[in-house]
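Risk register update: the risk of archive-format incompatibility is retired. Evidence:
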Amino acid sequence: MKRILHHVFALGLIFSINVALTAYINSSFIEESLGASWVSIVFVLAAITTLICLEYMPRVVETLGNETAFLIALALSLVGITLLFAGGIFVAIGFILYVAANNLVFFNLDIFLRHFSTTETTGTLRGLYLTLTNLGWLVSPFLAGFLAKQYGFLPIYILSFTMVAIVSITALFALRHFRDAPYLKVSILTSILKALRRKDVRDILGVQFLLQLFFAIMVVYAPLYLTTVVGFDFQSLGIVFTIMLLPFVLFQYPLGRLADKRYGEKELLIAGFIVMIASTVAFALYGGTSLAIFAILLFGTRLGASTVEIMAETYFFKVIKVEEPELVSTFRSMIPVAYLVGLGFAGAAIALFGFTTTFIALSIVLCLGIYLAHLIHDTK
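Archived output:
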């Protein structure tokens, strides 16, 4: 079983390369393919589709097993990428399917990992898993920026297809001995009500929503701001984003161990939100064009975000049981919910007030995270 855990770590790393390669060029690719007015529409439709799929994926896991569900999600991701090459409306359809499938894959990886976690080791295992998957995010933006500048967007999606294909073929053989734990079969409504009734789960869902709201707005609109307003090309953007993502690789594993061995999650969650808020305000207010300063400011935003992410993940997976995949689905559903709220808000705010006001408004909303973090009961 330990070998399967190692395979899960490796598959998470390879698959994250696929996601990270496209994350910061998706909005520009959609704008180029369909027009600027389609960017928010396609992202919102992708979020709705993801939300629906995540709500039903636990039923698939309970019926077919997590390995089969994982392979289905990978196949959908490959189909989605393929449709991107067809052009026209197929770009929108392919992107929606690609985003939804990618979220399902990470849900399945969560289920695999939860089978190997205990209360005493959750922070360490989640920290190691996130560190490895974030290695993909560290190298991919620079590579994607180079490819976009030299050859355009399509080679990036070809490389993403290759990564997903490698994961699919490897999973067919590497996970065939995985055995699912018995799952509790509950309805979608029961799952949501269960999450809302449990204070420990409810509070951390709020934290997760705010973190994903930050990611939704910054991942979609920060690249557009830096290219259209500041004037960076995609290669420069790749350098900035590579530096920006370093905290996810450098700090999440040691922070996860700290949460297991010495501190609880509350204090580190609060600290993470404070750093994230301050850095986002500074990013919004900086009026220059220095590549180095933008890299430092964005590094600060992700230093805070990486701390919040590992603490939220550690806390959540400590308080749920392995037989509760429906709660994992609810937790991961905060991603599309945040995209729906965030892109609707940010799209309108940017049109009415501009990027600076939108990023400052985001910082104000994130202050709620400090309050929610204060409410949780530490696991230490």
